[in-house]
Amino acid sequence: MAEKLPKTDVVIVGMGWAGSIIAAELGKEGLKVVGLERGKERGLKDYYVVHDELRYAIRYELMQDLSKESLTFRNNQKERALPMRQLGSFLLGEGSGGSGVHWNGQSFRFLPYDFEIRSKTIEKYGESKIKGLQIQDWGITYDELEPYFDKYEKVAGISGEEAHFGPERSNPYPTPPMKETPLTKRFKDATTSLGMHPYHMPSANLSEPYENMYGAKIANCQYCAFCERFGCEYGAKADPTVAVIPYAMETGNVDIRNFANVTEIIHEGGKATGVKFVDVLTKEEFIQPADTVVLTSYVMNNTKLLLHSKIGKAYNPENGTGVIGKNYCYQILPGSTGFFEEERFNTFMGAGALGATIDDYNGDNFDHSDLNFIHGGSISINQSGKRPIGSNTVPSGTPNWGAEFKAQSIKYFTRSLNIGTQGASMPVQHNFMDLDPTYKDAYGLPLLRLTYDFTKQDKELYNYIGKIADQIMLEMGADKVNERSNLESYDIVPYQTTHNTGGVIMGAEPETSAVNNYLQMWDAENVFVVGASAFAHNGGYNPTATVGALAFRAAEGILKYSKEGGMLA
């Protein structure tokens, strides 16, 4: 029998960026908040030994334990889905701060085009351009979301500069861009000579010390190259445990309970009454009653929890009806690897978001009239720092092991450069998430099942942008460029990006979306589902800044709901 705890105003499930922002905003306004995080508490003291590539980058110290809860995967509905036994394509964070602890820190705003993608594409190219795609407008415009982007950037202290294709901003970035390096300058010179418009990548690795509106003091980056998959022991990378959670606790209205794994949303009469969770250390079950339930866990976990709790209509890929599990998207990653015979670069130095970017081929910044795809991607050189175990870049044709592989790895460790693209991902009817009928987690609950494969749209975008990346690399002076294989079926094994989106998407009407533009569920007005699960497609950038903006918007909506009730407009 689960123990029933005292009722609270709001219970939040997951204490990453979205959960911590909402807790801080609600706590300062006097609402009583319980935050449930299934992983352990973390802070700067936990990162002092973080420069251990084997422990953190290879053995995934900060990530979800797949022996307790995983997901199953298949490329299409004819295949049998099998469980992920080890992390590969994406890395699910766990513990206080969530994936906001181990991120690189690249912090872009989605483009105005993204929020009205269906309307803008049809208006310019006609309805035939979107045939086969399940795209939709998000129910909010960039202009409506801009003040919340501004709030997020001020909390995180983002370092950046104005971009040629950047959307309008109400304020400049809180801190200047990061250092110019020989690599970023070379990329900028090459792209400028090709008629493109480079700018310094917006970064949550701060260029100078900064104090945010919550009183958090964030240090300046040391360029140590241990960002992605690591916490920052200097407190120089904005993450929730540094920038937000301490303030939330200081309000006196926020109680965070770690090792609390939420297994069900309890509801009756169309409204949630609370959540059930398991203490993962003692195995005890508890019920946390609340007036409002807020889901801010990772994309897959938000979707799984709603499907298991039977809140909202599950998506049916046969006829496209239903909304929970709909529009799963990922990212398309064309790029270019160049090799330099004489020159050497200090690529072992860097920071997660130290880089330069062009948006000339992102969104609808270029003409798609004669192209068989829509959208595009940001193209960047990212000097995040090559670490010895994970960096073995060799020319095409080199054996995968043996003496030649070792010799080429050593030779090109400081003589190879990579240009990468974050390519947008468009939803289609048969890429989705549901509950697996066979496999269960450690608590006896069905695993989430992911059905996903690359589409013709993805392959066309990949080939087009990849050629542009090669052109830039050659302009940068590479002696040779690796051949790029064609994009075939998606493989969940090699790491690609932790930029998963969809499943609980936002929109203007309940027939095609799960939540409104405050991230309030149409089918349960006191449930808010916040995160990249709300994205109706995935854009050409990292999702974090847009998640942060939506979190501030949702916090405003939850406060309004606590006073007025009903569906927000």
UniProtKB/TrEMBL annotation:
GO terms for molecular function: flavin adenine dinucleotide binding; oxidoreductase activity, acting on CH-OH group of donors. It comes from the Bacteria. Keywords: FAD, Flavoprotein, Oxidoreductase. InterPro entries: FAD/NAD-bd_sf, GMC_OxRdtase_N, GMC_OxRtase_C. The keyword Flavoprotein applies. Residues 427-551 form the Glucose-methanol-choline oxidoreductase C-terminal domain. The keyword Electron transport does not apply. Belongs to the GMC oxidoreductase family. PANTHER family: LONG-CHAIN-ALCOHOL OXIDASE. This is GMC family oxidoreductase. The lineage of its organism: Bacteria, Bacillati, Bacillota, Bacilli, Bacillales.
